[in-house]
Design goal:
By secondary structure, the protein is mainly α. The protein is 66% helix and 0% strand. The protein is built from four helices and no strands.
């Protein structure tokens, strides 16, 4: 199967790997987010970060069929979130929270859902377009 992206595999996979490294760096650093009582900034950040990771993982696996690619990207994204929470539990200045893992997983699921909706709204490519009778 030819890829919809003419990029080599390493070029599609590198962004997901670099993004994961950045997530771990930010998740393990001794930094804090601003406290806003009305908005759970930490949970929103987790949601958005893992939505983005899911998208990059789907890009990395673009040559895989859609359903298995989506399942693998969601599972890997949520797995990275779980691993990050385990690492944070071992750090004295960070804490692991089930709600963070939930926000990570919901972000990954939302990313997959948004890509599924976009795929359904996308017009068919020329090779997929129905042929008109002559």
């Amino acid at each position: 199967m030819s890829s919809i992206l003419p990029w080599p595999a390493w070029a599609r996979r590198a962004p997901a790997a670099l993004y994961t490294i950045a997530l771990f760096y930010a998740g393990c650093a001794d930094i804090g987010l601003p406290r806003v009582s009305e908005v759970p900034v930490d949970k929103v950040t987790h949601f958005a970060a893992f939505l983005g990771l899911e998208w990059l993982l789907e890009l990395a696996l673009v040559e895989t069929a859609a359903a298995p690619r989506r399942r693998a990207a969601v599972a890997a994204s949520a797995g990275v979130g779980g691993l990050l929470e385990l690492v944070q539990a071992a750090l004295p200045y960070r804490s692991a929270e089930w709600l963070d893992l939930l926000a990570d997983t919901l972000g990954a699921l939302a990313g997959a859902g948004l890509l599924l909706l976009l795929a359904r709204w996308r017009p068919p490519r020329a090779a997929e377009a129905p042929q008109r009778p002559r």
